[in-house]
Amino acid sequence: MDHDDAAPDALGHERAEEPAEDPIAAEARALLSEIEAELAAVSAALDRLEAGGYGTCEICGAPIADEALAADPAASRCSVHR
Fold first, then answer.
1. For the domain that residue 32 is a member of, what is the CATH number?
2. pTM score of the predicted model
3. How many beta carbons lie within 10 A of that of residue 53, not counting itself?
């Protein structure tokens, strides 16, 4: 964007061009978000384990299949409520 093309702000002053987002930083933020979500799911599963509710669906209380828990140990819902 040329300086002549900069859109003015509410007071009529020209705004500086926004710097482009660093693709590596964006990827790192996305990865961090995924890791935080996975950590929260594991923490919730540990809480269910301590409370005696691990392996049961949080919606209906039915058992979660062993195969589903093997694939995702943090699973909190049965196959019907996924």
1. 1.20.120.910
2. 0.69
3. 14
